[in-house]
Amino acid sequence: MKNLFLVAYLDIKESIRSKWFYVYTIVFGGLMALFFITGISDSVVMGFSGLSRMILIFMQVTIIILPIFILITTVKSITSDRESNILEYMLSFPISLKDYYWGKMLGRFVVVFMPVIFSLLLGVIFGLFHGGGLPWSMLLLYSALIFSISFVFLGISFFISTVVKSTDIALGISFMVWILLLAFIDIVLIGLMLQGQLNDSVIVTVAMLNPIEVFRIGAITLFDPELTVIGPVAYYLLDTLGSKFLIVYSIIYPIILGLIFATLGFVLFKRKDLL
Amino acid sequence: MIVKVKEVRKSFLNEYVLDGVNLELNSGDRVAILGPNGAGKTTLIRAILGFYHIDSGEILVQGFNPIKSRVEVLKSVSFIPQMPPPIKLSLDELLNYIQKSSDISREQILQEANKMDLDINKNLKKQFLKLSGGMKQKLLIAIAIAKKSSLLIFDEPTANLDPKARESFYKLLEELDSSCTTLFITHRIDEIKELINRKIYMELGKVVEDEIL
Ligand SMILES: Nc1ncnc2c1ncn2[C@@H]1O[C@H](COP(=O)(O)OP(=O)(O)OP(=O)(O)O)[C@@H](O)[C@H]1O
Ligand SMILES: [Mg+2]
């Protein structure tokens, strides 16, 4: 356990020094801060009842950039550590594979999630100065949604980087995963539904399995329980599942999925050649 | 016996890179492993260190299986890779990692480094990869020796060193405890002639010559 935290701590220090971290913090942290600030000012005006255009835009951008950012930076850092023999040297010390793998995972997670916490704080500070009550539950639930989506993509990244040894191929696969998951969010699903090519329940299942779509449904349910903007799939879901269930599901499901991928990755890490 | 390698086979892409290797290293052996590029020297070492899962055969390091008992095995082994890896940690952080994982004191590492005229304290905030090639190699050597392992494995350790540094490196090796086993992979046997008492020649994944000097 001591070594697990050591690995995590060093990974965080190393990430904080790197360029991608700055770009990530500025782009994503800024986005989140704007999101919270807009959310808070709007909530003062209209009690968070309406889903403002701004919030929708921020959410869409998050859906698009967060997964790819996590995938690319994580996959690249793990596979290039292996290709440049850093992994060989670091693992020539008496540290268990469990401590190393999960320590890296913890470190990465802190790094990825840190800007979210900062911008949340920024939003809260802004809200306090702005006056009026803060929509606490909203802020926390949205942060929880971000937590979940970050976690699942981290798990997928670790899985990809243990299965595939070469950086180029691993990056290629990451792109494929990202594009595939993005393609199967509402727009395509609704298209398919309208054309009547697929059974409704198939479409709903696909939607509920796709972590990007799950995040989207969760976020929209949070801000607009009527889900008016996302059309028939959402209506159907809300009708059959209820908004409480949808929110809980969209927080828990990605975490479980992320854990499954991360654990599979760990099993392979132990079973296959390390280098 | 420190290391026992018995009928070890390892293939990459359906081709045997280690093809029935047998090797026993005893306490106090100073071994040079020679052989052409691609003979399987690095692969053999990586298998001994538990990085590779072998297809068949058996490897024991002080009686332990290097994969199943990874931590026990690596506690008593020091390793210096063929090229210093581009580690992005600062020296301070790297030393921190090594001290805590291997339970050695920084003082010991600094002492060994001083013997090769490497001032670590002056460079603590510097990233490892920003050191000069020779400084990196010296630091890795200092760490390996400070660890007081019973088995030291060097994959071409002197490639980046200037003649003076090579001298002091060899001097350090002479100071090693006589029970300590060392394994050098090298293409320059002349340089370490005085340091070895056994010569192993590998070719096409097999040990073809094993000579006690
Ligand atoms: N991870 C790997 N995947 C596929 N092939 C590999 C891998 N590692 C080594 N090989 C192959 O195994 C053979 C032996 O490689 P190895 O690195 O053990 O040689 P070596 O004796 O250390 O050579 P050198 O003197 O050049 O360092 C080479 O043909 C190499 O291409
Ligand atoms: Mg080699």
Structure overview:
The complex is a heterodimer of chains A (275) and B (213). Chain A has 275 residues and is an all-alpha fold. Chain A is built from twelve helices and no strands. In chain B, strands 5-6-7-3-8-9 form a six-stranded mixed sheet, sandwiched between helices. In chain B, helix 4 packs across helix 5 and helix 5 packs parallel to helix 6. Chain B has 213 residues and is an alpha/beta fold. Chain B has one domain: Rossmann fold, CATH 3.40.50. Chain B is built from seven helices and nine strands; from the N terminus they run E-E-E-H-E-H-E-H-H-H-E-H-E-H-E-E. At the A-B interface, helix 1 and helix 4 of A face helix 2 and helix 3 of B.
For the structure shown, list the relevant keywords:
heterodimer, A: 275 residues, mainly alpha, globular, B: 213 residues, alpha/beta, Rossmann fold, 28% strand, binds adenosine-5'-triphosphate, binds magnesium ion
Percent of residues in helices of chain A: over 70%
Structure class of chain A: mainly alpha
In terms of structural class, how would the helical and strand content of chain B be classed?
Answer: alpha/beta
Query: Rg of chain A to the nearest angstrom?
Result: 20 Å
Tell me the number of helical segments of chain A per DSSP (H or I, 4 or more residues long). 12
Q: Nearest-angstrom radius of gyration of chain B? A: 17 Å
* Bound ions, cofactors and other small molecules, one mention each: adenosine-5'-triphosphate, magnesium ion
Q: What is the approximate shape of chain B?
A: globular
**Number of individual domains of chain B:** 1
Low-pLDDT windows of residues of chain A: 44-51
Walk me through the topology.
The complex is a heterodimer of chains A (275) and B (213).
Chain A: H1 2-17, H2 19-46, H3 53-83, H4 86-90, H5 97-130, H6 136-163, H7 167-183, H8 186-195, H9 200-209, H10 211-223, H11 232-241, H12 243-271
Helix pairs in contact in A: 1-5, 2-3, 2-5, 3-6, 3-7, 3-10, 5-6, 5-12, 6-10, 6-12, 10-12
Chain B: E1 3-12, E2 15-25, E3 30-34, H1 41-48, E4 56-61, H2 70-75, E5 77-80, H3 91-102, H4 106-115, H5 133-146, E6 151-155, H6 163-175, E7 181-185, H7 189-192, E8 198-203, E9 206-212
Parallel strand pairs in B: 3-7, 3-8, 5-6, 6-7
Antiparallel strand pairs in B: 1-2, 1-4, 8-9
Helix pairs in contact in B: 4-5, 5-6
Adenosine-5'-triphosphate is lined by residues 12-13, 17, 35, 37-43 of chain B.
